[in-house]
Amino acid sequence: MLLRLDNRFAGLRHDALASSLIVAAFVVAALFIGFVIATGRPIPIMLAVGAIVGVALLNALPLVIWIVLVGVLLVSGPVTMFVPALEKAGWLFSLLGFYLTGAAILYAAVGRERFARPPPAFVIIAVLFFVTGLLSIAHSDGPLMEGIRAIKRYYQYFGLLFVLAAVPFAAATVRRWWGFLVLLACLQFPMALYQRIVLVPAREGMPNVEAIDIIVGTLEGSLKGGGSNGALALLLITALAYLLAAYRDGVLPMRRLLLPGTLVTLPLMLGEVKLIIVLIPLAVAAANFDLIRANLFRFVSSTLSALALLAALGWGYLLINTQPGESVGRIVEATIAYNFGDVGYFGFGLNRTSVYPYWLEHQRLSDPVGIVFGHGLGSSFDALGEPDAGHMDQAHRGMHIGLTAVSAVLWDQGLVGLLLLVGMHGAAAMSALRLVRSARPGSDRAFCRALFALASMLILMLLYDSAPISLPSQQLLAALCLGLIAWRWRRSNRIENP
Length: 498
Known about the structure:
By secondary structure, the protein is an all-alpha fold. It contains 22 helices and no strands. α20 (about 405-440) runs parallel beside α22 (about 470-490).
């Protein structure tokens, strides 16, 4: 009898124990939910119903991803802009983002359909960045709620990355998501034009408000504050890089390139994101990186011609956005001053380069934990006048120590967190480059080239502002990019050595 029992145990699937535990957990949960409903109390009943719906959605993960994509990139922005009272509605999509994290963990444990390849290294780094961020709350000197709020800001859409890396979604489903992203970029022009013509003049003269920052398309923006114009530039330039890559690979003929190419380019000229002067060449170079090895002279000559054209367009861009009484020269001088000089980004405090020596100057060997592991998640958060600023931001009030994602992570998670953040993005870009080299000619290679272009831009955005760890639309674009790289990597049968 013992021999037969041993044989039965040996014949069990490797995940049978996990499956049994999950079934048992569902039984206990069913009993608990029944008890909650029997109490007749509305709030616990709603929570119980939400849990049931969440379990049901485990069989509809593509639908959840659609809700998150459409909600964050198309719905949440206009709702927040024109109906500020519904600002918290965006939390629904954040909750779904965390839900995807749980779904990814569950699928990795008991999912039946599996990828043939292991996940790329940057997915493991992302998990470590997630875990170390949570652990940093334990040694933080700030209040517990500071860390809990920061978890939402930092990791609200990491679940999209994890679920794309864990679940082998059908290629047709992924193509629809990517097609939606490109189509959404083409639809930004009417909204951006309305914002330039109507909303920018209405914001002129508001204290502490840059009127031009409201040009955000369908992404987040406030009629009385800032906007996600950097994330809009990322979306548009990524779509442009994909269209050019599709044209180069013969997927898109010139007559079909002109209209969408024009639609994704025009909104870039309406706003005032000076970083596009760097992002566009970076994206184009990344999408055509293989030309460097194939024909260096051709690449250099083409690059110089493109830079000359871009310089002319940039000058015209500055002329369009020059206010009465200003000159292009003064705009350039001011831009250099608050990015690389001694002028604060907001007119006081630190700027994008001075934040790093300031961090170094305020580290002490007597506090090695702060240097290596930081001061806790959310400690550097600058609430811009709100009462929930981080405790390190309050200690350095008015300096804006969390101005960029890199500086914020240095204060929050120390050198370890910074290495994980940069390593995650750097490894993702290298994985995307390897995919470009092994991709099939045509739409697959154009797709991989666009992913490499976006991954390259995301690295630069870490030095631009704090949006990578606070702005939902940009975080969603980053998670989608890294998740799609992981999905494509795990579907690949052969990866060439770089």
